[in-house]
Write a structure and sequence with these properties.
Number of strands: 0
Shape: globular
Keywords: DNA-binding
Largest sheet: none
Helix content: 55-70%
Distance between the termini: 23 Å
Radius of gyration: 11 Å
Protein name: Small, acid-soluble spore protein, alpha/be
Structural class: mainly alpha
Order of helices and strands: HH
Number of domains: 1
Family: Belongs to the alpha/beta-type SASP family.
GO molecular function: double-stranded DNA binding
Number of helices: 2
Pfam family, one: SASP
Length: about 50
């Protein structure tokens, strides 16, 4: 995923979701599957808004 999104953007999305405190560097392994799915959903929504 880092190939398409900057680390800063990923951290910003994690903050928006309220899970930034569980991210260690670029390791998102402490997130649940549901949180990862919601993370991707939020990233897609953000990309779609930027295209309009």
């Amino acid at each position: 995923m880092s190939k398409y999104m900057s680390d800063a953007l990923k951290y910003e999305l994690a903050q928006e979701m309220g899970v930034a405190d569980r991210i260690q560097g670029s390791d998102y392994g402490n997130l649940t599957s549901r949180e990862c799915g919601n993370f991707v959903k939020l990233a897609i929504q953000r990309a779609e808004r930027s295209m309009l």
